[in-house]
Amino acid sequence: MKLLEAIVEANQRAAAGDPAASVRIADHAGALPVVALTCIDPRLNRLIPAALGIPDEDFIWLRNAGNIITGPLTSTLRSLALACAVKGGREIVILGHSDCQIQRLSALELAAAFQSMGLDCTRMPDGLADYFGLFASERQNVTRAAAFVRSSPLVAPHIPVHGLMIDIESGRLEWIVNGYQAAPEPKTAALASPADLEMAAPNPLPPVLAPLSLDAKVGDPAFGVEAWIARERAANTTPSPPVIPRPPPVIPKPSLRTGKLDTA
């Protein structure tokens, strides 16, 4: 049994009331340290990394709002890649949680929150919901983030990328993406030359998941917010002065009497 399989199995046994459930982390030294991306929700402080049973020294903990990844070359991916390349991370876990406030937030509420802070929403980027990578489903968000990590050219193909959910009340883990099913065994190879790296083509992007509903949840088409921002921009834009067309230039014609150009 591999590390994350043993962790999930022991966690679920413990949640069911088995006092003897545990993981011998020492038996999985080759899979350590583990790199985990979680939400910034402070309720996770009391659960992680204890719910995984991983010692602090073998746990590289990255956090952002909603454990969101918006692409294979984003700043979050950069941190995950450096955690593996520099700090020696062997496995990656995207760990979502139940009762996520980001999931409950609508696009209109997000815009209102910014406006209440005195921010000028007309200066916000286009595609507000896409820019912040907000979502309508916690599980869908974990699946999408794991797909971006797995497709990233910054993460070695042999590093397993898992997706898990944790219950914020009980600490029970649930498999969403089993990274062992997709990750090949590591191979020893010579370092690529700069020319090889130049010729290497990036992995294709994972498919963009369709929105789940049309109730203006973040992650759905932000028709209300984007239209409102467009109206605000239009209302605060000084119209350009009208453009007055210039008359066409007068082209001199040759005189019938002298054969010279008539400039009169």
Q: Which second-level CATH architecture applies?
A: 3-Layer(aba) Sandwich
Major sheet: 5 strands, mixed
Rg, alpha carbons: 28 Å
Number of strands: 7
Distance between the termini: 99 Å
The H-level CATH homologous superfamily, spelled out, is Carbonic anhydrase
CATH class: Alpha Beta
Number of helices: 8
Strand content: 5-15%
Helix share, percent: 25-40%
What is the CATH topology classification name?
Beta-carbonic Anhydrase, Chain A
How many structural domains in the coordinates? 1
Rounded mean pLDDT is: 79
Strand order of the largest sheet: 2-1-3-4-5
Secondary-structure element sequence?
Answer: HEEHEHHHHEEHHEE
Helix- and strand-based class? alpha/beta
Description:
There is one protein chain. With 264 residues, the protein is an alpha/beta fold. The protein has a single domain (3-187, 194-237), classed as Beta-carbonic Anhydrase, Chain A (3-Layer(aba) Sandwich). The chain is 29% helix and 12% strand. The protein contains eight helices and seven strands; from the N terminus they run H-E-E-H-E-H-H-H-H-E-E-H-H-E-E. Strands 2-1-3-4-5 form a five-stranded mixed beta sheet, sandwiched between helices. It has a two-stranded antiparallel ribbon with strand order 6-7. The chain is elongated. It starts with a helix and ends with a strand. Residues 188-223 have low confidence and may be disordered.
In short:
With 264 residues, the chain is an alpha/beta fold. The protein is 29% helix and 12% strand.
